[in-house]
Write a structure and sequence with these properties.
This protein is mainly α. It has three helices and no strands.
Length: 116
């Protein structure tokens, strides 16, 4: 009859943890191998010798209109954030608040239902 090698739960735990981590390391190795053999990966461009050009001046940001009520600082911050995402200041056509009529309607109806 077959007898267990050990009844010690700590030895069994160590054996199981070694097996789990060995499998994880093998999977990690396969993922790394797949990343190196990937034919669809873009080739790295050689580093450019030219230093990066400075960011666009805030003066090139779109001007705030009187109808939006935004200050020039707010417009400059929004333009800088959009430029940081990779767009140029010339690609910004308009800065206006997003209309959310459903939210406004919900706020009005919930305000009417609330007892004060």
């Amino acid at each position: 009859m077959h007898q267990p090698v050990t009844d010690n739960p700590f030895v069994i735990m160590i054996i199981n943890m070694v097996i789990v981590f060995a499998v994880l390391i093998v999977i990690w190795g396969l993922i790394e191998l797949t990343h190196q053999l990937d034919p669809t990966k873009k080739k790295a461009d050689p580093p450019a010798a030219e230093p990066a050009r400075p960011a666009a001046a805030p003066a090139s940001a779109p001007k705030a209109s009187a109808s939006t009520g935004m200050s020039a600082e707010t417009v400059a911050v929004i333009a800088a954030a959009v430029s940081a995402c990779g767009y140029s200041a010339e690609q910004i056509h308009a800065i206006r608040p997003a209309e959310q009529p459903a939210w406004r309607t919900y706020a009005r109806t919930s305000g009417m239902r609330t007892a004060r």
